[in-house]
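Form 12-C: Joint structure prediction
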Amino acid sequence: MSLLVVGTMAFDALETPFGKVDRIIGGSATYVAWSASNFYHDIKQVSIIGGDFPQSEIDNLAARGVDFAGVEVVKDGKSFFWSGRYHMDMNTRDTLVTDLNVLAQFNPTLPESYRDSEIVMLGNLVPAVQMSVLNQMRQRPKLVIMDTMNFWMEVALDDLKKVLTMVDVLMVNDSEARELSGEHSLVKAAMKIQAMGPKYLIIKKGEHGALLFHEKNVFYAPALPLEDVFDPTGAGDTFAGGFVGHIARTKDISFENMKTAIIVGSALASFCVEKFGPTRLQELTKEEIDQRIKEFVELVNFDIINVA
Amino acid sequence: MSLLVVGTMAFDALETPFGKVDRIIGGSATYVAWSASNFYHDIKQVSIIGGDFPQSEIDNLAARGVDFAGVEVVKDGKSFFWSGRYHMDMNTRDTLVTDLNVLAQFNPTLPESYRDSEIVMLGNLVPAVQMSVLNQMRQRPKLVIMDTMNFWMEVALDDLKKVLTMVDVLMVNDSEARELSGEHSLVKAAMKIQAMGPKYLIIKKGEHGALLFHEKNVFYAPALPLEDVFDPTGAGDTFAGGFVGHIARTKDISFENMKTAIIVGSALASFCVEKFGPTRLQELTKEEIDQRIKEFVELVNFDIINVA
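Section 2 - Result
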């Protein structure tokens, strides 16, 4: 199924208890593309970058089947820049710098060849831009997946709610699900959020795994217990990329296949956190991915025959 | 496999955001016995109670196969009393009152008929008493399971470490595992704790499920997402009771069967939190338990055939 991805492509400066890096590529669409391109090789990328974005990074993604026709290059502009510092527990972080740069003028016009995409992955971005992308599609895509964050709930809730009515799958973390719904219980939160539009809700819980809700059905995907989390940046986008890449490849948007897609996404995310930024994703082999997915199967496999 | 359970039998006063109860039976051994007796009916109970402990509660447990020969009754004494108040998120609580009462003089002498038990479940209790019970066994039990809490790490760490060398399976929650090991990563914590004695470590993460570590093997058991948690009191002991009851019934102490036992324990714990104290456990049917275990199977079941 043809796949359109919209999101940021950026530079990040990152500081974790294990080290720091002053300038590394990042952005939601960068991570989604690196992750999804392990499974699907016709990714219609929509983003905006400055003249400073390295040609080598573009070439590497293009070689993996990422189409840059929808990526606007502002030659004399600077790419979006974000800088953050993680706390010791790696679950919380402080934003040190946010320089929008060219992102401030991001108002994408989709190339004609993009407008029939069957799957649209809306990476974390200002809701108005997410909506504009959906409005440019020739027909309603078969599957619209949206990532967002608490920031947009606080500054653009009305727009966010409008986009939600156009979305099939929402991906948020547990605190965002609670904030959006006003419910502490994730089961109740899931019911309220489904009533806002998305019939599928994925709640990402970091080291505690992920939940998929759909009507009365729930699926609990574990996270692989890791010895170290080196840098969590991009893990959520990498998860989204694995999810959407698996669905695009298998052409199957059923609940059952979404469960498998979540395991694939979780496996990719477990690699992402092993090194700074997208470094680990950029050196990943198919054998490593297959082995990691096997570890996830082992992790949750149990025999219930012996129960009374 | 014959089963010995040691722990407290008590009264609790409980306050949650959903209501309060001034006096309800509780204590680690009470919850373990109610839970385990769904699966196994020869439970050698070791505890101490005052003359105020209701005969009807004793009769109800005795009718389920719980042997009271090892429960000391101090006729003119009062049973252990604990009072606590849960915060809105149900993950944290304040202890309001701890009246040790007869527990202060708890120094159990095991009946002869108890000393060959094959499984010993050490409920949360002062480590010196846990050790005294193990020292009275005629031979080393086939499986020793121990529950404990952060309080004992702070006031009786040396004794706790001695008991750990005599234990096969340790059950603690995630913050206790971190405190005991001094490691934030649960994978590293598990390695350190295994080096202290227990070859199996179960880390309970409440709404995030439980992890079982053994050498290089890890199993991740989910928790059932619940609409409401009414009262978490006793959930950990109920989990332990389901775990140990399943093992006693199936006579199988393998890692594979421990995984199933964790699912059984998780299912029982998911009932426990639905009402105050052990109320829900006292009205539970076999059909409800079977149905709940099926829900756990559904919750984690996914098909990986379709992966690249």
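Section 3 - Comments
Residues 255-272 of chain B form the longest helix (18 residues). The mean pLDDT of chain B is 95.
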